[in-house]
Amino acid sequence: MQNFFWKKNEKMVSIEEVPFRTEEELEKYVFGKQAELLEDIFVFKRQVRASRDIPDLIGVDRDNNVVIIENKNIEVNEDILPQILRYALWAETNPDSIKALWYEVEDKPEDIDPDWDKLEIRIVVIAPKIQLSVARYVKKLNYKVDLIEVKRFALKKEEFVLLNKLEEDHATSKKVTKGLEEYDRAFYEKHRNKNSVKLFFSLTDELERIIKKSGWKLEKKYNKHYAGFKHGFPNVFGIHWVGSKSLEVFLKIPKKEFLKMQRVIPYESEYDERWKQATVRIDDKLKLQKLISAFRMSYEYILGK
């Protein structure tokens, strides 16, 4: 059992951990709060039967990967590896089964379109505790694997969730896993319009300068379909590809706060209910400097200010 302390009105308050009682409760919790806990993953099926095992959750992410999510309500060690490898092999050899499940979904995100002929697989393991050795072993697999520790705490009616994405220390990691793409300028130029790639990097560089000048503590990360600026685990805002030429700004904000954000955005904006974010299409008239107030709102929302 763990405790952490919250300083409230000059008083230190102890907040007790509330473990999930069963694996099923953890699974329902993750499924119900997927937009907040998984952010770039759209989960569309629970308990899919696959050969020897039943994947807890199956979804797709904004990079068009098929995502298999395994929830464990125990401490996870390297014994998990054969199981997640079976999931990955099942997904690779049964793309038509996953495709059929996908087409049954009525309210699919418009910006997701997996390549069913060249399916890319991502595995996510969620548990209250994951041994660091697992992070070293998954680097040997030819798949993208995310290891996420999740713990729940409570204070009266308030609930706190601690997420930790487990990664091996770079100093101990000597090799790069084969087969995983590096999202650099060469990658984007291979798959996107070159003029749009130039604009994409220009905008992310400018946004990075805005962040530095504002004193915001964010980390830039390039993905297949977007460049996100993250505060720890969650994205705060970034630049997203729409097709091979068009770009848009995305800003994480609850729908109830979107109307306030719209008032400070001098361009046409929309709300993406699926990803819980505001979007602004980028054209020749857009200036990132005019979106600073909106960026600040998104940043303060993620930090709980």
Topology of helices and strands:
Elements: E1 3-8, E2 11-17, H1 23-32, H2 34-37, E3 41-46, E4 57-61, E5 66-71, E6 75-76, H3 81-93, H4 95-103, E7 121-127, E8 129-130, H5 132-138, E9 144-155, E10 158-166, H6 185-191, H7 194-214, E11 219-222, E12 226-230, E13 235-242, E14 246-252, H8 255-264, E15 269-272, E16 277-281, H9 292-303
Fraction of residues in helices? 25-40%
Which geometry do the CA atoms define? globular
Low-confidence stretches: 170-178
Biggest beta sheet attributes = 8 strands, mixed
> What gap, in angstroms, lies between the N and C termini?
28 Å
- Class inferred from helices and paired strands: alpha+beta
Account of the protein in words:
About 5% of the residues have low confidence. The longest helix has 21 residues. The chain is α+β, with helices and mostly antiparallel strands and about 300 residues long. The radius of gyration is 20 Å and the shape is globular. It starts with a strand and ends with a helix. It has two domains: about 170 residues, Trna Endonuclease, Chain: A, domain 1; about 120 residues, Alpha-Beta Complex (Aspartate Aminotransferase, domain 1). A hairpin with a 2-residue loop joins strand 9 and strand 10.
